[in-house]
Structures are given as structure tokens and as C-alpha cells.
Amino acid sequence: MGFRFAHIADCHIGAWVDPRMKELPLINFERAIEISIERNVDFVLISGDLFNTALPGIDLVTRVVKGLKALNNKGIRVYAIAGSHDFSPSGKTMLNLLEETGLIIMPTKNEVENDKLVLQYIKDKSGAKITGIIGRRNVLDKAYYEMLLRERLESEEGFKIFMFHNAIAELKEKGFEQMEALPISMLPKNQDYYAGGHVHSPLCKDIEGFGRIVFTGPLFPANFKELEKLKTGSFYINDVEGKEIKTEKIEIMPKNIFSINLDCNGKTPQEVYETIIKEINDKEFNETILMIRLFGELSTGKINDIDFRTIFEIAYDKSAYFVMKNTYKLETKKSEVVKKETNISVEELENQIIKESVKENEKISKERQIEIAKAMLQLFAKEKHEGETQKDFEKRIIEEAKQILDYE
Ligand SMILES: [Mn+2]
């Protein structure tokens, strides 16, 4: 008598800002649920980062609840742990609310006995035993692993699943060198399935003495770089017979992707513009996300001299679903200013760029220019209040801008 379960992680619902992109992680979440129901899974695991933030918008929560309810109606259990993203600094998470409603079960209940963290397995109706440790930002969860009474989990009988949300040092792939990670020795040994989250790259590996370790990859890529690299969202479905697990990766992507990767070294903004136009002119972009990445050093002019507005207009006329550009690695000829150091905070970087950009001016002192620039940056980061109309919001921002500029 076997059973089947789905393993999902890193849905990052709410990660994209634009409404059209924001919709895609939701579509993939709903699709993963649909597939899980079609495939008659006994239960679903969600290994952290269901939401991108601790307090996601009501519309997002509603859609997620609807999906969970569909599973519930079919008698499919959902086991979820919180990840580094769906946790506020004070330890609050929307998952607590979902648990209260009975839509999810959090298999992370624990006790501290003689300074040791004791976890209990929850026994699912299928017979699987499930436990886990939540993920925290900045690997704060490492402390839990340090306290963990591993022997208790290692000696338990039956088919055991350990859910976690952290990277494993020995399994880090290229490109993840910077990511903090736990040494594998901190995990309890002798589990059948390690349902991982946190690493946004799919991986399935059997490790001697441990068991099958699976990272699902994001259910929908959470940013430009991930979308460019992975081109799809993914999750896993597992068939279990005794101690045998058949693991199947499922890829889901609601849109096509078309990438333009252009070396702009020695090109003028006009030449860059013309090259992109040539690339897109003979194409249609139905249901396609157009991704434009520019890199290298322009021979003249500024990045903003590239006529992106027309490029975007043409692409949307060719019915692109969404167009995005990335000029992070594009430099202008004289831009010592933007030779970014990676180890400084955003604020420090802003201050540095502002300082290097202000020029001597008869009317306004350098200090005053810096003060204005900083105040303006803060002002433009402000968001609309709950219930405030666009018009009132604009008025408020303009008024505050006038105050900053001392403008009557
Ligand atoms: Mn994540």
C-alpha cells in the first residue's frame, strides 16, 4: 500500500510588483494544486516561502486560501513550514492564521528538554511521519539545528519526512557560493525524504547515511535573474512504495520567455536601440515575457539615452505579455560613480552616488543639494495610504516635494 505526495517550496507569492507579473506565481500555485488533485496525492508539503512577505495583501491571501480549500475539500492534507520570507522580525507569519483555519498543518511543534530541541513527528493518514524546522532570515534557524536532539529523529521507525528551509553547504551549486548554508551534519540522519526549500534551484540527490534530499526550485522564479536562468517554475511529485521513492520533477510555466542578451561594449545608445529593434521587429510576442539584458560599456552617452520607451511600445504592440529590462551590468563611459561596491548598504551607496554627482552651483550649496536629493529619494519611496486615491496621493507627494524645495 503506497502513497503519493507533492512537494512545493518557494512560491514567493507577492514577489513581483507589476500586476501582470504578480499574477504568475498565483497561477503556478493554482496549477500545482490542480496537478496534485489530478494525480491523487495523499498530501502536499510546502517547504517555506509560500508568501514573499510576512503580511501579504488580502487579495493574495484570498487566492491562496481558495487553493488550499480546494485541497482540503478533496481530503488532501497540507503540511507547511514558514520560510525566511514569510516571517516578520517579531516572528509573525500568515501561516499561523492558515493553521488556525485548519487549512494547513505545521509539523514544527517542539519542546525544549534539558537545553535540547525535541521535535515530534506528525503521523499522516498515509502512514508517513512528518516533522521539520522553520527557516529564519540570516540563518537564525541554525540555532535550532545546534540544539536539535537528532538521535530521537534518527531512531524513529517508518517512512520519515524532514521539512527544512535552508541551504546545505555540501550541496551548494555554482552561483550560490555567497549563500549561507548549514553543514549537512546538522541535519538528522536516516530520514527517507528531506523536503527542502530556500535554494532557488531544483536538486534531487540521495546522500549516504541521510536519504533523498530535494530542493524544488521556486514554484515561479522570483526575480529577473531567476527567470532568465530557470525559465520555469517547478515542484515535485513522489510515489512511495515501502521505502522506495519515485521522484518526479514537474515544470510549470504559464508564459513563454524571449531573452535578449546584448553586449553593448563600444556601442552608442542609438546602436543599442537599433540592435534591439532589429531583434524584435520580425517577431510576435503572444503570451511571451520579453527580457532584455544589457551589459558592457557604452562608447558615449547615458543609459537613459537608449530609447526604451519606443522599444517597450513596439514589443507591447506585438502583444508581449510583459517587457522587462536589466541594465545592472551596463556602464557608461565615465561612470566611476556607478562602480558599485557589493559590500555596502543601499543607503551608503545612495549617499556615495549623490555626493559624487553634485556639482558646484552658485545658487545652491553642495550640502543643500545633498540634503534635497536625500529627502527627495525618501519622498519618492513613499506609498499610497490605504484608501487614498491616486489623485490625493499625487497631491500629497507634490506638496511635500514643494516643502523640501522651499518652493512657494
Ligand atoms: Mn525562497
List of distinct ligands in this structure: manganese (II) ion
Query: Runs with pLDDT <50, length 5+?
Result: none
Order of helices and strands: EHEHEHEEEEHHEEEEHEEEHEHEHHH
Percent strand equals 15-25%
Give the termini distance in whole angstroms: 79 Å
CATH class term of the largest domain: Alpha Beta
Task: Reconstruct the topology from this structure.
Layout: E1 3-8, H1 19-38, E2 43-47, H2 58-73, E3 77-81, H3 94-100, E4 110-113, E5 116-119, E6 122-123, E7 129-132, H4 142-147, H5 150-154, E8 160-165, E9 193-197, E10 203-207, E11 211-215, H6 224-230, E12 233-241, E13 244-252, E14 256-263, H7 269-281, E15 288-297, H8 308-317, E16 322-331, H9 346-357, H10 366-380, H11 390-405
Parallel strand pairs: 1-2, 2-3, 7-8, 8-9, 9-11, 14-15, 15-16
Antiparallel strand pairs: 1-12, 4-5, 6-7, 10-11, 12-13
The structure holds manganese (II) ion.
Manganese (II) ion (MN) is lined by residues 10, 12, 49, 83, 85, 198, 200.
Structure description:
The protein is α/β, with parallel strands linked by helices. It has helices spanning 19-38, 58-73, 94-100, 142-147, 150-154, 224-230, 269-281, 308-317, 346-357, 366-380, 390-405; strands at 3-8, 43-47, 77-81, 110-113, 116-119, 122-123, 129-132, 160-165, 193-197, 203-207, 211-215, 233-241, 244-252, 256-263, 288-297, 322-331. The protein folds into three domains: 3-252, Metallo-dependent phosphatases (Purple Acid Phosphatase, chain A, domain 2, 4-Layer Sandwich); 255-339, no CATH class; 344-408, no CATH class. The strands form four sheets. The chain has a six-stranded mixed sheet with strand order 6-7-8-9-11-10, with no helix packed on it. Helix 8 links the parallel strand 15 (288-297) and strand 16. Helix 7 runs parallel beside helix 8 and helix 10 (366-380) runs antiparallel to helix 11 (390-405). The protein is globular, with a radius of gyration of 25 Å. It binds manganese (II) ion. Manganese (II) ion binds at residues 10, 12, 49, 83, 85, 198, 200. The site of manganese (II) ion has 7 residues, from loops.
